Amino acid sequence: MSASRDKKQLLEQLNETERQIADRISDNMNTFGVSSTVGRLLGIIYMNREPMTLDDLAEATGMSKTRMSQVMRQMISLNIAEKEHVKGSRKEHYNVENDYVQTFVSLFTTNWREVISKNRQFANKLQREIDEVAAASDGSVEVDQKIAELRKELDEWVAYYNWISRLVEFFESGDIFSAVPIERSDKGEDT
């Protein structure tokens, strides 16, 4: 009897460790501007080690199935989750990337692509506004000087987002791993 109790206590302790890992994954999502709910589901599915249904997720979180559906759509758009067919089940199952590095790359590149796009559009809008002011200017030295300053600022702005775009491409192409190799641990692996 005491051996099974010890086993039960050990399993409970290991389950608590898994919960702590899932919680930390959730906390880390804030770094990417992702909601804690997205992080929580990522951690839950990751630690489950197999695809989960919306019902499973609702039960695990205590949230509604509708909310789980919304969050899973968000995770799919961030490229950190996908629908997965499970033989013998008619329900939709969801799974997440099992590689922390790939999850980072997906979040990093998806978020920055959106920022780059928005800021390039914004820069174009501001450039048009500056061009309109320049066309309407009567040649005032003060106005022309301000136009030149703002054009220089916008050039630097565009150069910055072009650099970020190249950085995103560096991650997406996998070239980042030549510059910063992943050091994998063999600990805990079965041999």
TrEMBL record:
Residues 33-90 form the HTH marR-type domain. It comes from the Bacteria. The keyword Membrane does not apply. It holds the Pfam family MarR_2. Keywords: DNA-binding, Transcription, Transcription regulation. The keyword DNA-binding applies. InterPro entries: HTH-GbsR_regulator, HTH_MarR-typ, MJ1563, WH-like_DNA-bd_sf, WH_DNA-bd_sf. This is HTH-type transcriptional regulator. It comes from Marinococcus halophilus. The lineage of its organism: Bacteria, Bacillati, Bacillota, Bacilli, Bacillales. The gene is opcR.
